[in-house]
Amino acid sequence: MRLKFSFTGHTVCLFSACVLIGAGLAWGQAKPSPAKTTDFDTAAPKDEILGTGKAASGASMSEASSPNRTVGPQRDGSIVASDNQTLTPAGKIVEMGSPVRVKAIALNPNRLVHSAAVLLMGSPQPIIVFDTVAGKVLQRFTPEDAAAANAKDTTTGSFTGITYSADGTKLLFSQDNNHVVIAKVDKKTGLLSSDQRVKLPEPPADGRTYHNAKSINPGGIAFSADGKHAYVALNVANTLGVIDLTASPAKLIGQIPVGNVPNSVVVRGSYAYVTNEGGRPATNEDFTNDSDGTAIVVDRKDAFTLSGTVSVVDLTAGKEVQTIPVGLHPVGMAISGSKLYVANAYSDSLSIIDLQSNKVERTINLSVPIAKGIFGSGPNGVAVTDDGKAYVTLGQANAVAVVNLQGRESNPVVGYIPTAYFPTSITYDRAGKQILVADDKGLGSRGNTTTKDNVVGYNTHGDMGAANLIAEPNSVELAKFSKQVFDNNH
What we know:
Layout: E1 4-7, E2 10-13, E3 25-27, H1 46-49, E4 72-73, E5 79-80, E6 86-87, E7 92-95, E8 101-107, E9 115-121, E10 127-131, E11 137-141, E12 162-164, E13 170-175, E14 179-185, E15 192-199, E16 218-223, E17 229-234, E18 239-244, E19 251-257, E20 260-268, E21 271-279, E22 288-291, E23 294-297, E24 309-314, E25 319-325, E26 330-336, E27 339-344, E28 349-354, E29 359-365, E30 379-384, E31 389-394, E32 399-404, E33 413-418, E34 421-429, E35 434-442, E36 449-452, E37 455-459, E38 466-471, H2 475-488
Antiparallel strand pairs: 1-2, 3-37, 4-5, 5-6, 7-38, 8-9, 9-10, 10-11, 12-13, 13-14, 14-15, 16-17, 17-18, 18-19, 20-21, 21-24, 22-23, 24-25, 26-27, 27-28, 28-29, 30-31, 31-32, 32-33, 34-35, 35-38, 36-37
């Protein structure tokens, strides 16, 4: 997602597009006195923080709860991120290396191989496949393409867009340099091999001013029910791309207009559902700002988006047949039975849509889990279980909300699970009875160190994206997890 609003002299990047602005450094301690920033103390060299350096023998190291805490790993096992948040991720951590941002996750439906894949950005490879039992990396995959302009051309990922076919034999993923990759999946190992890169067009030359006139910015992607087509959200064009997978080679055969700034897509039967972060089209009476050339309806004072929608697309007719208003910046979705669940990142809510009527039947508040609930949790992904629970990633709270969907309580959130830094995507592993979480920034900005004025520091762009493998907690475990999330967010 790259929803950007233009103002005089500024570009404001919303939500996951730009969280850290600038190339600042989280500087480390230098002897004899620690370096300071204007906000908080910064991290010591890694070996000292972990108790393996000279300072570990007699110095008292700060804990995450200390007002003088340092950035980086703490002796109690927690991590202080570069924005001063505390991380205490539950379950197993699958490290993906650095620098890397983990944007989305997909579970291989073939239960014989116990594998999943994550979509990356800023990495030497766009995909990593890992073992969902052992939590070990199995493969770092870069597609082959003889037509690629250079080696780097094939390594790009995207802000979202990864899915397996229903039988687990194919993996689709988006690349933000105008490609969708079709990869073959080995039935015995879960490893990937190249099949094809489908070339997508550049944004339409219709007079709009684009942030990048060369990128149509493909995002969320889904297979058709029969596996013969793929549907991809074309973020800049405000369309749903249709790819014929039966053609040789596979190719884009059409685009279906949807709402503004489409993010994700899910398919149920002959209908597709697309989240539109920029909401409904603007009218002449609306106050707007541009997002990649598209007029977005925004607040006159603070310029935040005033509309979020889900497009209902009739795939047989090839057109949008209905628009469902939901919360602001709707992103991740999940379908369970006759319900569609939509995470609204800028409304801190979960919309539940009845697919028989295509109307929102319930909206669940997911505010930050402190005090009486404060705006800013940033829900962005959702997974639903067979026994009536929803797991929702709260990007800015570094947690997963556990929601009871079976009752009608005014507050059905029954607990929280701590994750690594900025969770962005989630899936439920029914066979393993666990949730798999993609953590955009993972273990924080600790991948790259540098030295300035004899001070060792971590570059804030050296993100160590990761995945959490978290066994479903029982009530006692969930209570402990919830307390930890409360403590982390105070």
